[in-house]
Amino acid sequence: MGVAILLFAGLALATVLFLRQEKLGASPRGERLERIRRSPHYRDGKFRNLTETPLLSEGHGWLDVLYRNYVATIPHHHPTDTIPSVKTDLRNLPTDADALVWFGHSSYFLQLAGQRILVDPVFSGQASPLPGTLKAFPGTDVYKVADLPTIDYLFISHDHYDHLDYETIVALRDKVGTVICGLGVGSHFERWGYAPDRIVEKDWYEALSLEGGIQVYVEPARHFSGRGLSSANTLWASYVLQTPTYTVYLGGDSGYDRHYADIGRKYGPIDLAILDNGQYDEAWREVHNLPEDVLLAARDLRATSILPVHSSKFPLAAHPWDEPLRKLTELNEASNFRLVTPLIGERVDLGPDSDGGQAFSRWWERVR
């Protein structure tokens, strides 16, 4: 009995210490929490999707999902080869060049109308608060904060660890001008040393103007949020970035829903739709697109080009590492969207004079 009590006490202490880690961030309080409570998307202590959204699709259970993802053998879950990449010099990229550089998973650098924009950066080499877990595939962790120029705007889609990375955010503190995020996410940034006047938190259907004449429209996604024991207490979002000549959709993490068609009607046609395509499961299709959903979303958005993200860096789901790109490419043969599939670090030219003129290889086909 004494040994059991000691083990229980030790486990309880370890849990408390883990939950007090700075990397878990902070829950919204005070005036921030009061603003959240006034949101029409916040009910009964949680943010809600436009459509009722269970974390697991009908017919799936947690035991099955846990077994499939953490116990069963998953063929080709990790690449045997090193993932290929190039390294564009971002610090010397001409500011008049509209361009994008993907860092793997859902992290990318976007230069638009002379503004340097960073989205969901994760440069720590893992997508988990537990040391040594969910590590990046060899060859994918190419960039570090030191490789980046000064960032005008840092966009965060939501606060999950594979999108909001403590080590990266702390290292970026002196390089970032303004943080743009959903309601409540700013509480993490304040705990990590960012001044409140550098953080802009928005609700769905709100807008803001950036330097360079960029208009930003904050729109829904179908997902969820949470770090530690908190769930859905901060807002997940997608963003439309619009200049007089070019429109980019930053989709964040999302399952397929009516918000894509709503966005397409309001802001389409979309020149480049950056869409969640990877780390999916039939059990999670309410909150993560399957490849076929990506094409439906692009249709609804009235998109010309698709940049599929959320793949090729972390093993977060029970599918072969290359399946998202392979399946999307195969399915797109009947749809004929322009697929933008750069290597990690490869420069993608943007703008009305660039679309369609740049070719991309099926680089994943050369990786075992």
From TrEMBL:
GO cellular component: cytoplasm
Residue stretches making up the Metallo-beta-lactamase domain: 116-310
Pfam families (alphabetical): Lactamase_B_2
Protein name: L-ascorbate metabolism protein UlaG (Beta-lactamase superfamily)
Gene3D superfamilies: Ribonuclease Z/Hydroxyacylglutathione hydrolase-like
Coiled-coil residue spans: none
Species, as recorded: Neolewinella xylanilytica
GO molecular function: N-acylphosphatidylethanolamine-specific phospholipase D activity; zinc ion binding
